[in-house]
């Protein structure tokens, strides 16, 4: 059976080294030198941020913000009008036919 294997395909380690900085690399080196089976957890490298064309994106975002601000006023007015209509209809129903609120 190979070193570091328990026969099930899973690896068995004597020690788990976290990080590959100076201390982690040194620890892994000395553990391997002593014959210990070790695993290492290393943080993946951070990807570079994509380059974004500055002025074009700012213009598009400004236009989008203007559209959202214009539409939100209209949508809020429509929702309030709908709520007012619903409240007016509910107040005209006899009390025994009114729906219970809250589910």
What is the end-to-end distance?
64 Å
Structural class: mainly alpha
Spell the H/E element sequence: EHEH
What's the alpha carbon Rg, rounded to whole Å?
A: 33 Å
Helix percentage:
40-55%
Structure annotation, total helices: 2
Q: How many independent structural domains?
A: 2
Q: Low-confidence spans: pLDDT under 50, at least 5 residues? A: none
Strand order of the largest sheet: 1-2
Mean pLDDT: 79
Strand content: 5-15%
Largest sheet: 2 strands, parallel
Number of E strands: 2
**What overall form do the CA principal axes indicate?**
elongated
Question: Quick gist of this model?
Answer:
With 103 residues, the protein is mainly alpha-helical. Helices cover 50% and strands 8% of the residues.
Summarize the structure in words.
It is built from 2 helices and 2 strands; from the N terminus they run βαβα. The protein has 103 residues and is mostly helical. The chain folds into 2 domains: 1-44, no CATH class; 54-97. Strands 1-2 form a two-stranded parallel ribbon. β1 (15-18), α1 (22-34) and β2 form a beta-alpha-beta unit. The longest helix is centred in the C-terminal third of the chain and has 39 residues, at 54-92. The model has no long low-confidence stretch (mean pLDDT 79).
